[in-house]
Amino acid sequence: MPGLAAHRGTVLCGLALLAAVTCRPAVAQDDPGPDLAAQPMRPPTVIWCSVPSGDALYVSGVTRLSSGSFMAARAYSGRFGRTVNARYGLHLNLEGNYCRQSGNRATAATARAAQIGRMAARNLAIVSVGVF
Fold first, then answer.
1. What pLDDT digit, counting tens, does each position of 1-42 carry?
2. Which of 36, 53, 76, 109 has the highest local Cβ count within 10 Å?
3. Domain count within the chain
4. What's the pLDDT tens digit per position in 115-132?
5. In a domain, 79, yes or no
6. Would you say residue 99 lies in a domain?
7. Within a domain: 117
8. Quick check: is 66 in a domain?
9. How far is CA 49 from the centre of its chain?
10. Dist. CA 86–CA 58, nearest whole Å
11. Is the model's pLDDT at 90 over the cut of 90?
12. Cβ neighbours of 84 (radius 10 Å)
């Protein structure tokens, strides 16, 4: 059947052409790509974390992150959750958002102190997580 062989050849050539058109060259994982490289870096941000659990409020100190990106804040929040779980035997969700961001240290310290004051008025123990 010469017709069937010719048809297979056409199909195979078509598939090879389709594969060549849709394949893109490999790019390194660390290469941000042209659209991401054009975006400006967000300025540093000040962050602090807290979580009420049971009869205590677990709170971190105020610290500065090098980037104000969403991913940097979420990574810091996850690290806070892992630290509280490990040190105090809690079972916090590691994907939770336990941190608050602020533009400067004074605003963050004021917000942190206000939350500590509200929780102390409810007779919750204030536990400083410290370095994590």
1. 555 555 666 665 555 555 555 555 544 454 555 555 555 566
2. 76
3. 1
4. 999 999 999 999 999 877
5. yes
6. yes
7. yes
8. yes
9. 14
10. 13
11. yes
12. 24
Is the pTM here over 0.70, yes or no?
no
Length of the chain: 132
Residue 79 in contact with residue 132, Cβ under 8 Å? yes
What is the spatial distance between Cα 101 and Cα 123, in angstroms, rounded to a whole number? 26
Cβ(99)–Cβ(76) under 8 Å? yes
Placement of tokens 């975006």 in the chain? 39
CA distance 62 to 2: 78
Which domain range does residue 104 map to? 45-128
Composition of the chain by helix, strand, coil, percent to 5: 45, 20, 35
Residue 12 has a pLDDT of 57
CA distance linking residue 34 with residue 130, whole number of Å: 40
Radius of gyration from C-alpha coordinates of the chain: 26
